[in-house]
Design goal:
Shape of chain A: globular
CATH class of chain A: Alpha Beta
CATH class of the largest domain in chain B: Alpha Beta
Strand order of the largest sheet of chain B: 15-19-20-18-17-16
Largest sheet of chain B: 6 strands, mixed
CATH topology of the largest domain in chain B: Heat Shock Protein 90
Strand order of the largest sheet of chain A: 2-1-3-4-5
Radius of gyration of chain B: 33 Å
Order of helices and strands of chain A: EHEHEHEHEH
Distance between the termini of chain A: 9 Å
Shape of chain B: globular
Number of domains of chain A: 1
Oligomer: heterodimer
Structural class of chain B: alpha+beta
Largest sheet of chain A: 5 strands, parallel
Number of domains of chain B: 5
Number of helices of chain A: 5
Radius of gyration of chain A: 14 Å
Structural class of chain A: alpha/beta
Strand content of chain B: 15-25%
Number of helices of chain B: 24
CATH topology of chain A: Rossmann fold
Distance between the termini of chain B: 34 Å
CATH superfamily of the largest domain in chain B: Histidine kinase-like ATPase, C-terminal domain
CATH superfamily of chain A: Response regulator
Helix content of chain A: 25-40%
């Protein structure tokens, strides 16, 4: 695969209200060279960042204050800019119900906490259509 | 311990403290029967994120405990479980257990077994008490657009609001993208004052690049008219949602709509929001709006708004600022040189202006770094509230704890060191101070004992008081016990003053009870408390009235990192004295100095003051060219509490803020020296340990006064 020039990198937004958890996700994503990762503190911050720049992929936690992940998915699926943008939901292992609802609302995939970096790479690469190397 | 687990522990502790605070508040609310659902939900969220963290760091036992608790809290917030005393007991127990699991003590107990036992108990309780919630009523009239995105909890709250007969409103608001945090917070405060915010729904239509529109679902007792008034100063539209058939109208979901125009005629429609910040500075200064809000609402957000800094890194910064101060002093020297060289004086004047500006900003920088170290004492008070709860249960006493001044700030290091001594004092209060309920009633006192915990700033120090309304302390009994235990002699006892007798409780090994109870513990007495407080340069005083209660008062410096010092010279050597220990400086004619049994003393306002020559004490060789005035000396009167000593010095050089640095091994054990600091021109200067010097003075005083009283017992060593 050819080297991606800098300006054709994929912009990825990570929405997670727990700083250490966010750090881990960003760290896991840092292994995928083609990504330009931005962090959002919560759903509201995500909306703000989504409006300021175009993102190609969104990873979001479900359980967040004010605007939770479900409502964020719902909002993005009805948005002109983001209705097709892939969304990956980050859930805890037991939260099957949350997961199902998020997928019903239009999320594309989910990953479970604790985060396993290789799995995150694989899913992100698959979704963005990058080669799996 | 690696940095990962340090980070986990710090993060987890923060979450647990938040949880604990919410529980205490919940307990208060449960007594009044007026529960804030946000509080339970906040706890649920806190524990939920703790579970996530534990998974992240591989802390299995914390994860298991969080998981189980999360389920219980979920049942609570969904109304499947009531907030009863039993439930609260178990939740409080969980907090203690978190503490044990987080920092297991080597060889003490078996945390895993504790966890298993607790999980069993939690499960049994949950299973026995859980109840079905009636969700049969159709909510179809609200519309799928809203229902489809509600979480189970939000739906439950919606139903609860409807069951309570509240009106349901959809408040539509547009927020400027940059000011949305403040905007939401302001609106939420207004709405919460009149009802419950059930959820925030993002609105799709209308949101543009620079604004975000939200629908806020609110349950409230107030009618439509009133609701529009409540939000009249916000740019929002209020809709009332009502089921068909109610209010005689069959037009679901929106029955009444009104757009509240915020003086819209004056505003440029395209950019209405930035003004919110400007118009309402009182309500929306960003950081403080958060701090002032209830902790239960903001705790999780604050996690993402704060940076955790290792205190050692702040110390490095503090030292740098200190060194910058030295550079600045050197610049002053350069300025003087320049003045001598320069004819016109233009350059030196400009340099002087710049130096002055730098001095001011350095002071601000120093203050800024100090402020970062400051944390509210409330952190400790929360822990103490749990102790009160636990110990009063163990001892079957009823205690009302009253806390004030919990926002008083102190250096983080001091706050950390305070928690053990305060915990011990509180235990003592409950164990020895407060009488059993029956005894209280028979004495005509209120059955419920009262303990007050207060913190307040006093000058540049902070005072913390622990007061109870228990039986008080009898000084004669203390005196007699001290004689029995050989702490003082019978002769000493005969002439001891009531206050000095009281102070004997701070003497090592002292306890007025023959049988130390398990609560206060044997061997750890008030002497340890005093020692720990002295370690952070604090003083403890006690006053008491038999039958009425006891007041312990702790006076502390605000910080240990930097102090104001008096710079003095003795035999050509320079020293610093902590200014807070300096009572006054006087000039004394040599002929006024008398001797009592070979020790020099002066009479100051009718009282004998022992003198200490620093040059003799430290066996200083006078530096060459040093020639003190033989006729007069300076005496710096220093003291702690009522004990004083006069330090004889040659020169008073001035006052200065100094950053204290620890001593190297060579000087660490020299009595009378507390630390070192740097003054200008790379001069290292020693800081005097006033406590030790006063002890020294007291010793002289004792031998000098024929009719001596015991002072040593009440002094710090």
């Amino acid at each position: 695969m050819t080297q991606q020039p800098k300006d054709t990198r994929y912009n990825v937004l990570v929405v997670e209200d727990s700083p250490p958890m966010r750090k881990m996700i960003v760290f896991a994503l840092s292994r995928v060279r083609e990504l330009q990762v931005t962090e959002a503190d919560d759903g509201v911050d995500a909306l703000r960042k989504l409006a300021q720049q175009r993102y190609h992929l969104i990873l979001t936690d479900i359980n967040m204050p004010i605007l939770d992940g479900l409502k964020l998915v719902k909002r993005l699926r009805a948005d002109r800019t983001y209705k097709e943008t892939p969304i990956i939901i980050i859930t805890t292992e037991g939260a099957a119900e949350d997961r199902k609802r998020a997928l019903d609302l239009g999320a594309n995939a989910y990953i479970t906490k604790p985060i396993q970096a290789p799995l995150v790479h694989k899913i992100v690469r698959q979704i963005l259509g990058l080669s799996l190397t | 311990m690696d940095s990962n687990s340090t980070e986990f522990i710090a993060e987890a502790q923060e979450v647990i403290e938040t949880f604990s605070r919410s529980l205490l508040e919940l307990e208060t609310q449960s007594r009044s029967g007026n529960l804030d659902p946000d509080l339970i939900n906040g706890s649920f969220r806190a524990v939920h994120s703790l579970k996530g963290l534990a998974g992240l760091f591989g802390a299995t036992s914390i994860g298991d405990l969080s998981h189980a608790l999360e389920n219980t809290l979920d049942s609570l917030r969904l109304g499947k479980l009531d907030v009863t005393r039993e439930v609260l007991d178990v939740l409080f127990e969980a907090i203690e257990l978190f503490g044990v699991l987080l920092m297991p003590k080597e060889g003490v107990g078996d945390p895993d077994a504790d966890l298993d036992r607790f999980l069993g108990k939690l499960q049994a309780l949950t299973r026995a008490a859980e109840q079905k919630v009636d969700n049969s009523e159709s909510l179809e009239w609200i519309g799928e657009a809203i229902l489809g995105v509600l979480t189970e909890y939000e739906e439950h709250r919606l139903r609860e609001n409807l069951k309570a007969g509240r009106n349901l409103y959809r408040v539509h608001a547009a927020f400027d993208i940059l000011a949305i945090d403040v905007g939401i917070e302001t609106l939420k405060e207004k709405l919460k004052a009149h009802g419950e915010v059930i959820t925030y729904l993002p609105s799709v239509d209308g949101s543009s690049d620079d604004s975000i529109e939200l629908d806020i679902l609110v349950g409230s007792d107030i009618d439509f008219q009133k609701m529009t008034e409540v939000v009249a100063d916000q740019d929002v539209t209020v809709h009332r949602l009502a089921p068909p058939g109610k209010d005689g109208k069959a037009r679901p979901p929106a029955v009444e709509d009104v757009h509240v125009p915020v003086s819209s005629s004056e505003q440029i429609p395209d950019q209405p929001e930035p003004e919110v910040v400007v118009e309402e500075p009182k309500e929306s200064p960003r950081p403080s709006a958060r701090e002032d809000a209830q902790p239960s609402e903001t705790s999780l957000r604050s996690l993402s708004q704060t940076v955790r800094v290792d205190l050692r890194r702040l110390d490095v910064l503090m030292n740098l600022v200190g060194e910058l101060g030295l550079v600045q002093a050197n610049l002053g020297g350069v300025l003087d040189l320049l003045r001598e060289l320069e004819q016109s004086g233009d350059v030196s004047r400009e340099l002087q202006v710049q130096i002055r500006d730098m001095t001011r900003k350095l002071a601000l920088l120093q203050q800024g770094i100090l402020d970062v170290r400051m944390v509210p004492i409330g952190q400790v008070f929360d822990k103490l509230a749990r102790v009160v709860r636990k110990v009063s249960r163990e001892l079957d006493k009823e205690i009302r704890l009253m806390i004030s001044g919990e926002r008083t700030v102190l250096d983080k290091l001091i706050v950390e060191e305070l928690s053990d001594p305060l915990m011990h004092m509180i235990r003592n209060c409950i164990d020895h101070g407060i009488e059993a309920p029956a005894e209280r009633v028979s004495l005509g006192k209120q059955q419920v004992g009262r303990i007050e915990l207060r913190a307040f700033p006093k000058g540049n120090r902070v005072v913390i008081e622990v007061e109870d309304d228990g039986r008080g302390m009898n000084w004669q009994k203390i005196r007699d016990a001290a004689v029995r235990r050989g702490v003082i002699t019978a002769d000493d006892a005969a002439s001891i003053s009531p206050q000095d007798a009281l102070n004997l409780v701070f003497t090592p090994g002292f306890s007025t009870r023959d049988q130390a109870s398990t609560v206060s513990g044997r061997g750890v007495g008030m002497d340890v408390v005093r020692h720990n407080i002295a370690k952070i340069s604090g003083m403890i005083d006690v006053s008491t009235e038999v039958g009425r209660g006891t007041l312990f008062s702790i006076t502390l410096p605000v910080t240990l990192a930097i102090i104001q010092a008096l710079v003095i010279q003795s035999a050509g050597h320079t020293f610093c004295i902590p200014l807070n220990a300096v009572l006054e400086s006087i000039m004394v004619e040599s002929r006024d100095i008398g001797t009592v049994e070979g020790h020099e003393v002066i009479t100051l306002r009718g009282k004998t003051l022992p003198l200490l020559h620093l040059s003799r004490l430290f066996e200083l060789q006078p530096l060459s060219g040093h020639r003190p005035d033989p006729n007069r000396v300076y005496v710096v009167v220093v003291g702690l509490a009522q004990h004083r000593v006069g330090l004889v010095v040659d020169e008073l050089l001035g006052q200065q803020d100094v950053v204290i640095k620890p001593l190297g091994t060579a000087l660490r054990n020299v009595p009378g020296i507390a630390g070192a600091t740097e003054l200008g021109a790379n001069r290292t200067v020693l800081l005097l340990d006033v406590g030790r010097l006063v002890d020294e003075g007291a010793h002289i005083y004792q031998t000098a006064e024929t009719n001596s009283v015991t002072i040593g017992g009440a002094l710090g060593g």
